[in-house]
Amino acid sequence: xxxxxxxxxxxxxxxxxxxxxxxxxxxxxxxxxxxxxxxxxxxxxxxxxxxxxxxxxxxxxxxxxxxxxxxxxxxxxxxxxxxxxxxxxxxxxxxxxxxxxxxxxxxxxxxxxxxxxxxxxxxxxxxxxxxxxxxxxxxxxxxxxxxxxxxxxxxxxxxxxxxxxxxxxxxxxxxxxxxxxxxxxxxxxxxxxxxxxxxxxxxxxxxxxxxxxxxxxxxxxxxxxxxxxxxxxxxxxxxxxxxxxxxxxxxxxxxxxxxxxxxxxxxxxxxxxxxxxxxx
Amino acid sequence: xxxxxxxxxxxxxxxxxxxxxxxxxxxxxxxxxxxxxxxxxxxxxxxxxxxxxxxxxxxxxxxxxxxxxxxxxxxxxxxxxxxxxxxxxxxxxxxxxxxxxxxxxxxxxxxxxxxxxxxxxx
Lengths: 280, 122
Hints:
The complex is a heterodimer of chains A (280) and B (122). With 280 residues, chain A is α/β, with parallel strands linked by helices.
């Protein structure tokens, strides 16, 4: 027998916004459920290192699903006649539907980038449903700084341009093997999906007018951002933390926008103390 | 260091292969000095100062001399380590016909970063 990793993957169909979507989910470990939300334009493979780390899986059931339209999850039937666009409401509903379908009892939810934004919405609106939220590279507001039309047009390879778009978001210190694995995920995204996710991340998901209302006594909030992240910069992270009273922020030196996939060894130094604190 | 681009790029067979559909001239502004980089099928044929104001290029990328100097260090600081990050931080500008640039975005990022010294070099 090969030396299998401890990760298992399965499919199921859940309903989001009244539509049935076939979802792919991976998990490993047992204990407190830890739901992981991938970045815009990527998929759940970003969390594979967490699922192979006994220091985490001895205490947490680590679960990562590919959002509809991403990775090995399907788009809903009829996708060929519509333009994908992620909104705040559809994103929240999807995460809640997933947790309910999986029958998770007060999971910790950890999201990166746009996932780091949506967990803040969940902390405000569903504080009693989650044990804690962890925002990786998550801020409550970002200003768009590129024209996203470049990401979806027939005269530009969407996968190649999406990867090149984000390549500078990987820190120069990160190992080449994991830098290029992180970018490979972007090269495999469906047409227009990264662009559709950025609608939420850059336009629809602003939250700085409400983030101060989060009650961290009911739902603790952790913010971890990389030094080299030029979208969710250390400054934006600290500004977000200052608005969310009681939140805890860590700036990870020598890290970029994809901590769990670009530099897993460095990331575990930062995430293990957080996970230990949450389950204490 | 911009003069190093031709030798660095042409010695990198994987980079030349990725740029095999690129044949154009583009401008790199370093402070007040404009350079024209001529690319044919991924190979850099020449890098030279712009001689005449009417010399035409497809697109132009400009940044301050200090920004490029930091960009080419083995471990550049944040916002200077990547061309897009330089632009989003307001430290560089992109103008002209950006279609060929975006069609070959990683190629051009790597061409412009090619003078970067490896760790341990000066």
